[in-house]
Automatic annotation (TrEMBL):
GO cellular component: cytoplasm
Species: Bradyrhizobium sp. JS329
Record's protein name: 2-oxo-hept-3-ene-1,7-dioate hydratase
Pfam families xrefs: FAA_hydrolase (PF01557)
Entry-linked SUPFAM superfamilies: FAH
Amino acid sequence: MGLTSKAMQRSSQIDEPDYGYLHANMVIPDGGKAHRDKYCVPRVEVELAFVLRSALKGPGVGIVEALRATEYVVPAIEIVDARVQDPRRIFDTISDNGASAGIVLGGRPVRPDQIDLRWAGCILYKNAEIEETGLAAGVLGHPALGVAWLANKLGSQGITMEPGHVVLTGSFTRVAFAEKGDAFHADFGQLGGVAIQFV
């Protein structure tokens, strides 16, 4: 599942988090190609993906519970693609699956206690030039709080997050628009990199 972070909330003029579902057919291999004409207005976000080791269900999930339930964290690029016109409201993004349209996982998986995830940074390159930079603390102060928020939100609907589920915790940079021929490389430093090209 993918979350809408503070950076995306500001750019979308939405004042609360939301989420969408990630489906198997949305996964693109690291370094792979995405067909630009498959999307409406594709944009790229850099995020951390949390892969769960154990079930997680709210209410009452906090950062400690979210970290304990996580097997590893890995760099990710999410392709977002809004199918509604701006300005959007919260119910627009919900009906649009949180604008989730694709996901690329790559880099080096790390256990959540191996590094201070707040300081995980990324330099996003578009066609070999720096487009955006940011720190994961831009997601609610700590990206694991995004996992906790989602567990509590889904728990209020009777839904449990299961082992193996992938949670994108939200972009900590502004989106970068993607046109045909654009190549993106997200450099997460010690966590490695992840890349995609639009053809």
